[in-house]
Amino acid sequence: MNELKRLIPYAKPYWRRAIVLAAFSIAALVSGLLEPYFLGLTVDRGISTGSMGNVALYGALLLASAALLSLFNYLKSVWQGAIGTDVVRDLRNMLYRKLQYLPFSWYTTMPTGQIMSRMISDMDAVEQFVAFGFTTMLTEGSTFIFTFIILMMLDWQLTLAVLLPMPLMVYAIVRFRMKIDPAWAAVREQMGRLTTVLQENIAGVRVVKAFAREPHALALFDEQNMLNRARNVDRARLEAGAFPMMDFVSGLSFIVMIMVGALRLVQGSLTMGVYFSFTWYIWSIIWPVRMTGWLVSVMRQAAASVPRLFAIADAPEIISDPAGKSAGAEAARSAEAQNLTPARVQFEDVTFSFPDDPKTPVLRGLSFTVEPGRTVAILGGTGSGKSSVINLVPRFYDVTGGRVLVDGVDVRDMKLAALRGQIGIVPQETFLFSAMLKDNIAFGRPDASMDEIVAASQVAQAHEFAALLPKGYETRVGERGVGLSGGQKQRVALARAVLMNPRILILDEATSAVDTETETAIQEAMAQVLRGRTAIIVAQRLSTIKSADRIVVLKDGRVAEEGTHAELLALGGEYTSLYELQYREQEVQQGDVITDEAMLVA
Questions:
Q1: Contact at 8 Å (CB) between 555 and 382?
Q2: 375-380 and 534-538 as β-strands: parallel, antiparallel, unpaired?
Q3: DSSP assignment string, 389-447
Q4: Which CATH code is given to the segment(s) 4-313?
Q5: Going by C-beta distance under 8 Å and a sequence separation of 6 or more, which residues neighbour residue 325?
Q6: Can you give the pLDDT at residue 351?
Q7: Rounded CA gap, 602 and 599, in Å?
Q8: pTM to 2 decimals?
Q9: What's the confidence (pLDDT) of residue 328?
Q10: Which of the listed CATH numbers 3.30.70.1140, 3.40.50.300, 3.10.450.50, 3.40.50.2020 matches domain 327-422+502-571?
């Protein structure tokens, strides 16, 4: 139950509605308890005395009690369902907000499928408990207590006799709970793994098809699905073994009541009306105990799910706004800065390691400056730290040593919204939402006019293909932009960044998915966009890097060389080696093209 206590703060805002729900529950309880009582009066004061008037009177009261019970049960179900849904809605909103602010490092250790499983399957288990399980537990418990009191008042000897088999049911319930806890935990964990396999396969369907690995994908899913089945079969076997025992005890209680009640009737120490009332009341004793098995199952489902949900809620927001800063003032300074000069970006003796591998430095004492309005290109081999450099500026990660400064201010001392509002980013892996093309372009500026969207698209060379789409800019691009080619998606990402009108522009292999002709057109258009802005460009194509004001060559997380294209070529060092290697590859490719053309002519 300790796990479930964490749900209390989310139920507190609805305490007024909970009072109304309690009133309906009490009314339903009273109505239910009156039914057997009126049945007994009908028999003793009506049938036994031959008074049809009393039969009609108590029969009508019995009917009224049944009608009221149905009404209050309906109202109780509606209100408890609404409260449970509201609690889960608030909890889901809280977790979704948390997901928005968790750092990138958290997502590297938490598979998307696990997140989906927790936000859907585990949340459903919590909703089932909050909406029905908890209320049912209270109402059934109250029903048992009040029924026991009434039965003791009617005939305490018969009541004790009927309750004699109950310890067997209590034993079965305790034993069931001890086994069902780990069973439900295993079911929830396996469902997370199954969802992960499903999500990854759908997201990577092109790769699966490209390598004809459909049989492998089917086998992988089938393996996890079979494990999921096994976990659920184990859980179902436990429930199947527990519930028949409860049914047996219920039947045993009835047999005891019939035998002892018949003996008391023969002896004349029990009236027929009380006997009939007992027959009805006994269900109000047995059913709550019988329901305990279901309640334990529901409660343990929720208890297994709550820790998985709050593992998200408790995850530390490593990247967060600095304490004591005024969001309004910071935003105002950001807006003012955007109307003034471009920013200066400085790396001062920066060291960086990923949170999941702190002993392996990615950057080691890195220092360089991007002057306002200048373009600096970052070049280096795989693992040199290029991507880490551009991830530190918008604080996707924080440095482990040194400082990253924007206009002389440590980025860790700035509000995240103010910092990132000055930065336009075109990532290497373009992500588009399953929305209209214009919404994807205006994602950073939803208030942008259509003219502004078109203007940004023209700069990014996206307008030409956008105009040819079935509904133009109102065409839905599909999930992850599946309806567009890689080059088209990259140009949409460029347009999205251009529309932000940022002081700092970060391009991470922004033209890697476009052909040479399109890249040339984009570069010509981007020359105008980069003018007056501070830009950091990561690219492998030297045609993109050559035009930069300065080139920083990284090797093993350090600045190996720094200068212009001509200066670095004159050094004859790392940059020259990379340049000559790529230049030779281009020469070979050009030679292959010429050879192919000559063969065609021949």
A1: no
A2: parallel
A3: HHHHTTTSS--SEEEEEETTEEGGGS-HHHHHTTEEEE-SS----SSBHHHHHTSS-TT
A4: 1.20.1560.10
A5: 413, 414, 415
A6: 93
A7: 5
A8: 0.72
A9: 40
A10: 3.40.50.300
